[in-house]
Amino acid sequence: MLTVKHLPIAIVLTTLLGCSSDKVKEVEVVKEVEVVKEVEVVKEVEVVKEVEVVKEIEVVKEIEVIKEVVLGRENLGSVVLTFDDGHCVDSWVEHAHLFEEHGATATLYVSKYNSDMAANLLDLQSRGFEIAHHTTYHANAVEWVEKHGVESWLKGAVLDSLTNMRNDGLNVTAFAFPFGSYNLELSEALKSEFTSVRGYLSPKTDSLRFATQSDGYFYNGVGIDSVYFEPQERVFGAMERAMKTGRDLVLVGHCIVEGEVTDRWQTPTNTLLKIFAHAKKIGMEFKTMNQLR
Questions:
Q1: In angstroms, what CA-CA distances link 270 with 96, 203, 232?
Q2: When comparing pLDDT for 20 and 128, which is higher?
Q3: Contact criterion met (CB below 8 Å) for 77 and 251
Q4: Smallest Cα–Cα separation from 105: which of 263, 268, 292?
Q5: How far apart are CA 84 and CA 224, in angstroms?
Q6: Which residues contact 101 (CB under 8 A, 6 or more apart)?
Q7: 14-51: b or e for each residue (b if 16 or more CB lie within 10 Å)?
Q8: How far apart are CA 288 and CA 195, in angstroms?
Q9: What gap in Å lies between CA 107 and CA 287, rounded to an integer?
Q10: What is the pLDDT at residue 66?
Q11: How far apart are CA 278 and CA 274, in angstroms?
Q12: Phi-psi region of 208 (alpha: psi -120 to 50; beta: other; left: phi over 0)
C-alpha cells in the first residue's frame, strides 16, 4: 500500500503553503498519479480508495511535522548547560559568578539530596539556575528495575527525595538518569512528575546530532567533562548546527574545577569559558531545561 512517505516533498510543501482550493487540486493530482501506478493491480478501484484514505490521514500528519520544522527554523537554537551529582553542589556555588558574568545559566541535577543542601540550592535557584532531580542514590535505574521493579525504583530512587526537595522550596520539574541508563518504560513512568527527562551521550558518539534530536520530553545530552571535551571543534560544530536548525543542544558536565582536573567527571572552567566565547561569537543563547517547554 502506498503511504505519504512516497509523496514528493514539493507536493507536501505546496499543500502546506497554498490556498485551500489549491490543496484539493494538488491532492487530486497525486491521486491520479497513484492510480496510474496501481494499474497492474486487479482490484484497482478498491486499492485506490484504500490508498486515498491513508494518504488523506497521513498528509495531515506530514504537514504538521513540516510546520514544526519551519517554525523551529524561525527561532535561533540554544545551548543548555547541565551539571550532575549532589556532591558537586559546592563547586556550582563557587563558580556561579562565571555564568552570570557571561550571560549564561544552567540546569543542576542533584543526586543524594539532603536538606543541608537546601540553602545553597535555593540561592542558586534565586539567581536563575534550575534545580533538577538525579535520583536519591545515583543507582543504575535499569539494573534496579530488573531486580526490584518499576514501582520500587520510583518510590525509592525518585519520589521520596523529590518530595523533600519540593517541600524545601525547590521547583523541580526536570530529571536525568544516572549513567544515562534508561529505557522507554522508565521514561514514560516519570511523565506524571517531570516535564523533561535527560539521557547521556559520550562525546565519542559517532554523530553529535543525537544531542539535538528530542521529542520535547526526552533529551540526550553530550558530555563536556575533562578530556571528553576534546576535540572541542566537534562541540562547536554541534552548537552551530543547533543554531542553523533552530534546535536545542544539551551539554552535560559534573563538578566544576579550576586548573588541572583530577577526575574524569570534572568540567574545567577553561572549557566553560570556551563555550561561553563560542556562543557569543555565533549569537547563541543559553537556556535551562524548563525554558524549553
A1: 14, 18, 12
A2: 128
A3: no
A4: 292
A5: 12
A6: none
A7: ebeeeeeeebeebbeebeeebbeebeeeeeeeebbeeb
A8: 12
A9: 8
A10: 33
A11: 6
A12: alpha
pLDDT digits (tens, 9 = 90+) for 110-168: 999 999 999 999 999 999 999 999 999 999 999 999 999 999 999 999 999 999 999 99
Cα 255-258-263 angle, rounded to 5 deg:
50
d(CA 116, CA 94): 17
Residue 191 near residue 215, CB atoms below 8 Å: no
According to DSSP, residue 155 is labeled I
Query: Count of CB atoms within 10 A of residue 136's CB?
Result: 20
**Chain mean pLDDT for the chain:** 77
**Cα atoms in the Cβ-side hemisphere of radius 13 Å centred on 53:** 6
Give Cα separations from 246 to 70, 208, 213, 240 (angstroms): 9, 15, 11, 10
Classify strands 248-253 and 78-84 as parallel, antiparallel or unpaired.
parallel
Bridge partner list, 115: none
Give residue-wise pLDDT tens across range 79-123: 999 999 999 999 999 999 999 999 999 999 999 999 999 999 999
Give me the sign of the Cα torsion angle 263, 265, 270, 271: positive
E strands along 9-100, which residues?
78-84
Q: Is the peptide bond before 8 cis (omega within 30 degrees of 0)?
A: no
Residue with cell 557569543: 280
Question: What DSSP designation does 8 have?
Answer: -
CB atoms within 10 A of CB 11: 17
Bridge partners (DSSP) listed for residue 39: none
